[in-house]
Write a structure and sequence with these properties.
The protein is 47% helix and 8% strand. The protein is α/β, with parallel strands linked by helices. The strands form 2 sheets. The protein has a 4-stranded parallel β-sheet, with helices on both faces. Strands 1-2 form a two-stranded antiparallel sheet. The longest helix is centred in the middle third of the chain and has 14 residues, at 142-155. The structure holds adenosine-3'-5'-diphosphate.
Length: 338
């Protein structure tokens, strides 16, 4: 016979705790909060702490974005401008010359040969900030960002989402429960700073529409001497344009798949502390490297091939809720969004 005895407060608390600790699907356990950031376990506590305490040097350049908004494209543009259109030889060189701060920690950024840029995916309030540093922020419409992020999350083993479906990912995205948390919070935090003199705020869609014009603006933002060089040396400008095309950047894909193997073959003791920490966290990365394409389609509007009408409605509701009182969505008034 079932007991009608009321559970004690302690029993209720224990039950709540048990409920909260119940393992959900593995792909929902690939993230945790670290100092207010919702991030995956590929970012070790050590490297996150180190990244968040990084003190920008005068003249540091940061490429900042929410994931899958065109970060690598922008890193390549900045790299090309600084190096006259000569691309990095391989992903390891790229990671050292344009380090991802939260992934590898501050030491790699400190040691980076300058001029180069440091990548972060941090919202403004977590971004290492100095008014003597420059920030290029790239954003992308939330529909295409969501689609691109779905493929990325499937392809990178640390997310434990190899068999995940778009519907599952869409739910996570609109709940803000993906790597780096909520898309809109991130965007709004930087949108407020779009007029700051040391911030260049760009959309992926504008960059796609007028790549040449934007490369010039980016070069001028990095330093008038870089813009002038492009105006005076069409051959260098053309080299940069060739280096940053989708087709030429697709060369990264094979490299990305081999990257973990290449990195694993470097003796651990020769790596900077941050890289060691990352490698330790990614213990199985040689057996399960990144698969699929990192540089995928590189187009505007792929959301039309993925979102159901019901998902479009839910995204619109989310946009209305999160951006109420802001004109941020005007950024995409010409992008053909639903
Ligand atoms: P898709 O998955 O929609 O193709 P991030 O670098 O922030 O991870 O962003 C990845 C997205 O940028 C991917 O979008 C990728 O294809 C796109 N991308 C990368 N290089 C590009 C380029 N040269 N031109 C246009 N898009 C590019």
């Amino acid at each position: 016979m079932a007991s009608s005895k009321k559970p004690t407060e302690e029993e209720t608390q224990n039950k709540d705790l048990e409920e909260a600790c119940k393992p959900g699907p593995p792909y929902k356990n690939a993230y945790r909060y670290f100092e207010g950031l919702y991030v995956s376990y590929s970012f070790t506590d050590r490297n996150l702490r180190s990244a968040l305490s990084y003190k920008p040097l005068d003249g540091d350049v940061f490429v900042v974005s929410y994931p899958k908004c065109g970060t690598t494209w922008m890193q390549y543009i900045v790299y090309g401008v600084f190096r006259d259109g000569v691309p990095p030889a391989n992903v390891i060189e790229f990671m050292n010359m344009a380090p991802f701060l939260e992934l590898v920690g501050a030491e790699v950024a400190q040691a980076m040969p300058r001029p180069n840029s440091i990548k972060t995916h941090l919202p403004f309030n977590k971004q290492p900030y100095s008014d003597k540093a420059k920030y290029v922020y790239i954003t992308r419409n939330p529909y295409d960002c969501c689609v691109s992020f779905y493929y990325h999350t499937r392809n990178a083993p640390m997310y434990r989402f190899e068999d995940g479906t778009f519907d599952q990912f869409f739910d996570m995205f609109v709940e803000g429960k993906v790597d780096y948390g909520d898309y809109f919070d991130h965007l709004l935090s930087w949108y407020e700073h779009r007029g700051d003199s040391n911030v260049l705020f760009i959309t992926y869609e504008d960059l796609k529409k007028d790549t040449r014009g934007w490369v010039l603006k980016i070069a001028d933002f990095l330093g008038k001497e870089y813009g002038d060089k492009l105006r005076q040396s069409p051959d260098i400008f053309e080299k940069i344009m060739a280096m940053i095309s989708v087709d030429s950047m697709k060369k990264i894909n094979a490299d990305m798949n081999n990257w973990s193997k290449d990195l694993a073959s470097v003796p651990l003791e020769t790596l900077p502390e941050g890289m060691k920490s990352f490698m330790e966290a990614m213990g199985n990365m040689v057996e399960k490297p990144f698969k699929g394409e990192f540089v995928r389609k590189g187009i505007v509007g792929d959301w039309k091939n993925h979102l159901s009408p019901e998902q479009v409605s839910r995204m619109k509701e989310r946009i209305a809720l999160k951006t109420a009182g802001s004109d941020v969505m005007e950024l995409w008034k010409d992008a053909g969004l639903p």
